[in-house]
Design goal:
The protein has about 270 residues and is an alpha+beta fold. About 35% of the residues lie in helices and about 10% in strands. It folds into two domains: about 60 residues, 3-methyladenine DNA Glycosylase II, Chain A, domain 3 (Orthogonal Bundle), CATH 1.10.15.40; about 160 residues, Alpha-Beta Plaits (2-Layer Sandwich), CATH 3.30.70.20. The protein is elongated and about 100 Å long.
């Protein structure tokens, strides 16, 4: 009886040794060598793992860059200097064409709780996406910010806070330009703009002047006063509120002073 037990243990030990040796050989024979450039690229990425590049975190984006399936400009968080170092690592000739104009998030609305009219008092889940499913939200303006902080909850850089009157406030120094808040906003109030754009028309309404003013006292009334006073001819209208051509804008601030409803702001005013 004992001899059978000893024999069984010996057979199992031998099988374990043989299988272990086989697995060790297979691991060496079929091992995939990791390209050292992946770790070098990963070290240059911001490490936010926000997913704005469309890949599963910075590691996935680094691998895609090395094998050539991703654009070097695919990370909105990386600065020009980091992108150029990555280009040197992976040998992309187009590295000199990297756009250095950083984008940041802007809240295209100034209709806060004091200026924007309401249809009803909302007491549900504090989430803009949830609120829009209930009669399209409590505010009369169908283009304005609902002020429930969905953008804050998705920002991985803590760059957004909520004002006392329920409008998101962007910290331009913290904003990395990932665009997650833009994707999360159900009203398309959050937009990406060049960091150099010091003046913004903070209205998203495409309604006619009278209709816009009935729902928000800060709505653009399309009076064209801003366009008429602009010495650089940087302001224009295109079936909606005033728009600014940032390639022409000199940030002189005349439009800010001239706007009768005060929906044009200096975004770096603090």
């Amino acid at each position: 009886m004992s001899s059978n037990i000893i024999l069984s243990v010996a057979v199992l030990a031998a099988l374990g040794f043989i299988l272990g040796a086989g697995l060790a050989y297979a691991a060496r024979a079929f091992a995939i060598t990791r390209d050292p450039r992946i770790d070098a690229v990963l070290a240059e990425l911001p490490g936010a793992n926000c997913g704005a590049c469309g890949y599963p975190g910075c590691s996935g984006y680094a691998e895609a860059l090395v094998i050539g399936s991703a654009l070097i400009t695919g990370c909105p968080v990386s600065r020009k200097e980091a992108s150029e170092r990555i280009a040197d690592i992976i040998g992309q000739e187009e590295r000199m064409n990297i756009n250095s104009d950083k984008l940041i998030s802007v809240v295209k609305c100034c209709g806060n709780n004091n200026t924007s009219a309401r249809i009803f008092n909302y007491s549900g889940l504090e989430d803009c996406r949830a609120a829009t499913r209930f009669y399209d939200g409590p505010k009369k303006c169908r283009h304005g910010c609902l002020g429930m902080g969905t953008c804050i909850s998705v920002c991985p850089f803590n760059a957004i806070t909520m004002s006392p009157l329920k409008l998101p406030v962007i910290d331009r120094d913290r904003c990395a330009g990932c665009g997650l808040c833009v994707d999360a906003c159900p009203r398309q109030v959050m937009v990406m703009m060049p960091e150099r754009s010091g003046i913004q028309v903070l209205c998203n309404s495409g309604e006619a002047a009278k209709a816009a003013r009935q729902v928000c006292s800060k709505s653009c009334i399309k009076c064209h006063k801003c366009a008429n006073i602009c010495p650089a001819e940087a302001i224009f209208f295109d079936n909606g509120p005033a728009k600014i051509n940032f390639d022409l804008c000199t940030n002189c601030g005349l439009c800010v002073q001239e706007c009768p409803v005060k929906c044009i702001y200096e975004t770096n005013r603090g």
